[in-house]
């Protein structure tokens, strides 16, 4: 029996999605196109790689790998005779998996409030990609490159890092496209002026002679000023627009020979300053946004009201938690004292009274703990909402009514904030209580966690098992009155229709407070190819 699979063999099956193949083709074409737009110190495909990983769901990353392999196959196949088959294969196979691992490790940071994680991804991706490429080159090339290893490494790292800061911020803007932003009128004209200044400085750079190094360096450094203005006005969003524009203008106005390996030493030194400036702007952008929002007086908007409501609910839950812990401590003390009493009775030969006392107290103690868990569900803190619904005192009360059928629970509630889980628990308890008091017949409850418009949330449903019965108007009115405050605090809604009540709660607070690299080489200079 154990060797049956050897005789019958085994089957591997997988599904190929047309959308995935289209994504692979699009990615390969994007890398090939940007390769032709790149120069030695500005290698755009490295930035395209990280931006694609940020924008694409993880389930589609395999198609990005396929697209990169197709791109490398096209670019490096003619190099087999010069550099060997081993380098073409291994040098092409390891880059995107390594960068994908870096993006995966930053997954929790991407969902955080600050956007400074972009710098961590950029630096990590640039260092890892450079180490892999140069390491494989020195191990597998028939003749190592003539340029010193450390010089090559510095050029590669800075090249990839600048490319990531050029392309990845645009991906970040797309990731945060649904987050709210207060576009006030006073920002409009200064923003247009800053963008216009970038365009004018870029045009002047084109007109200045390539031999006038002083004028070119001055204009290149002046490009930083409009980007600083955009960052001060719009925080990280201004940096996410200004830094890529500045880097693109620099790359397209630097002197080149027209060859893929073009390199301008003067511009390269300027780029080192620009890289430092870009890092500072992207790092300070989120802090500027934070302090601006703190110091700018705004009207009491709906989101502000919801935030205050959530704070009030959480403060109330904290008070209930302390009371529940106090009650549990009292129960523990009583149990300890009772245990000593039972042991003393048994020692005195009163076995039957001791057993009766222990049995009676055990029943009362269990009920006491069930009621305590309804004051505050401590199980929710350790195991999540669904465990609290199945194993707490609320579940025992529902089971005692003999009217609640087995709950239907889907998704992972642990992805939700603790405040939202507590709100869902209280909302469920109140909705079911309404049904038990005002309706007759069996009751079905269900919940599903997931994402809606980029936010985590949960849909709760309490319904009569008999679909042909409609809820009484009194039940609907009571549900709206008693459930709306807590549901609206989480940007949700209560809907009464037919035989059911549906409640949606969105983790807007958790989502808003809870998502990367540039220069090619030319064989003429005997330096590592950047395809």
How many E strands?
5
Instruction: Report how far the terminal alpha carbons are from each other.
Output: 52 Å
For the sheet with most strands, the description reads: 5 strands, mixed
Beta percentage is: 5-15%
Overall pLDDT metric: 78
Secondary structural class: alpha+beta
Helix fraction bin? 55-70%
Dominant shape? elongated
- Order of strands, main sheet, comes to 1-2-3-5-4
| Gyration radius, rounded | 32 Å
Number of helical runs?
Answer: 23
Q: How do the helices and strands follow one another from N- to C-terminus?
A: HHHHHHHHHHHHHHHHHHHHEHEEHEEH
What's this, in brief?
With 531 residues, the protein is of the alpha+beta class. It has helices at residues 4-8, 18-37, 44-55, 61-76, 80-83, 85-93, 95-105, 107-110, 117-140, 149-175, 188-207, 213-222, 224-234, 236-253, 265-295, 302-347, 351-375, 378-383, 385-391, 393-401, 418-438, 473-489, 508-513; strands spanning 408-410, 443-452, 455-464, 493-497, 500-506.
